[in-house]
Amino acid sequence: MSDTEPLARAVLEACTQRGIMLATAESCTGGMIVAALTDIAGSSAVVDRGFVTYSNAAKMEMLGVSAATLDAHGAVSAKTALEMAAGALARSHAGLALSVTGIAGPDGGSAEKPVGLVWFGLARQGSQPIAEQRTFENRGRDFIRRESVRTALEMALKALQA
């Protein structure tokens, strides 16, 4: 059992109880969130799809993130995370969409946007999308990605329990 399996199970159960399908839009996690969910038998009842949009072109083409947002704020920003989540919601049959975009390292960080900076977005039918930022300790790429998966699942569970 993975360390996120209990959390993923709780998210799936909450979606099932509320009759909500879920979608993900992932950049730095490369599909790890949707994989954590779909590793569990029966997840197809509530997981609609996962978008892996690693490049800016993919974010624009698959999710409708605007070039102006990427130019002004960069891929790792609140605005991009919000547009990714809203785009996943609009381009799926889901009632809840999660997004993640960040700098997992080991390279790519700067003083303004260090390795470990990750933005999360959550969009839900009938609500304004929200974004949250975390800066994880730089304990390696795998650590940052795993913590990003955990954080996204926690965010989804919190939203589903509200």
TrEMBL record:
Descriptive protein name: CinA domain-containing protein
Gene3D superfamilies (UniProt xref): CinA-like
Pfam families: CinA
Organism: Mesorhizobium alhagi CCNWXJ12-2
Every CinA C-terminal domain range: 5-159
